[in-house]
Amino acid sequence: MNNPTLCINHELSEWKEQIPDIDKQSLQIADMVFKYLDSRKRLDFLPQGKPVNIGLTLTGDREIHHLNQEFRGIDKPTNVLSFAALDDEDFAQDAQIYDEVELGDIIIAYETTEKEAKEKNISLHDHYCHLLIHGLLHLSGFDHQSDEEADEMEGIEIEILHQLNIANPYTE
C-alpha cells in the first residue's frame, strides 16, 4: 500500500496558528492509520500500488454547520464530517480504472473542536489527532452504528492514539 496523499484546504487560519505543523502531523497520522489497517488486512478493497488521495478541509463551525444541515439534516455544527467514496456505488470500478484512488473527504471544524478540547481538558492538538483518525477510519469503511462497530472503531483509535502518546479519549 502506498502512503496516502492529503490535499489540505485551510479555510480558517486558526488551525495553523494553534497547531503550526498541522500539515506535517496530519500526513503522519494518515500514514500511521493506513499502515495499521494495511498490517491487519483491512485495506483489501484498495487496488495495490495505486496512490490514495484524501481531501482534508480545516474549516470553522459556519461551514460545517451548513454541510451538517445539507447532508445529515442536523441543524448545528459538529466536530468532524467524513464523506467516504466507498459509499459511491461506482467506487470499486473507479478504483480499478483510474490511476489514483479518491478515498473521500474529511472536514474538521475549529470552534467545535476547540470547545470540546476545553471541556475534556485536553489539548486542541490531541483532540484534532483523534478526530482526524476517526475521519480516516470512516473513509476506510468503519462506522459506529452498532455497539460492536463502535467498540471496534474506538479500539483502533485508542491504539493509534497510544502510538502518538495521546491518552485514551474514551475514559472519563
Descriptive labels:
172 residues, alpha/beta, Collagenase (Catalytic Domain), 4-stranded mixed β-sheet, 7 helices, 4 strands, 16% strand
CATH class: Alpha Beta
Protein structure class: alpha/beta
User: Per CATH, what is the topology?
Assistant: Collagenase (Catalytic Domain)
What does the average pLDDT come to?
A: 94
User: Strand tally, please?
Assistant: 4
Relevant CATH superfamily: Metalloproteases ("zincins"), catalytic domain
Q: Fraction of residues in helices?
A: 40-55%
Number of helices: 7
Residue ranges: pLDDT <50 for 5 or more in a row? none
Terminal CA distance: 36 Å
Strand content: 15-25%
> What's the CATH architecture name?
3-Layer(aba) Sandwich
Overall shape: globular
Q: What's the helix-strand series?
A: EHHEHEHEHHH
Largest sheet, strands/sense/barrel: 4 strands, mixed
Strand order of the largest sheet: 1-2-4-3
Task: Output the radius of gyration.
Answer: 16 Å
Count of the domains:
1
Tell me the layout of helices and strands.
Layout: E1 5-10, H1 14-18, H2 22-39, E2 52-59, H3 61-72, E3 80-84, H4 91-97, E4 101-109, H5 110-120, H6 124-139, H7 147-163
Parallel strand pairs: 1-2, 2-4
Antiparallel strand pairs: 3-4
Helix pairs in contact: 2-6, 5-6, 6-7
What's a quick, concise take on this entry?
It is built from seven helices and four strands; from the N terminus they run E-H-H-E-H-E-H-E-H-H-H. It has helices at residues 14-18, 22-39, 61-72, 91-97, 110-120, 124-139, 147-163, and strands spanning 5-10, 52-59, 80-84, 101-109. It has a four-stranded mixed β-sheet with strand order 1-2-4-3, with helices on both faces.
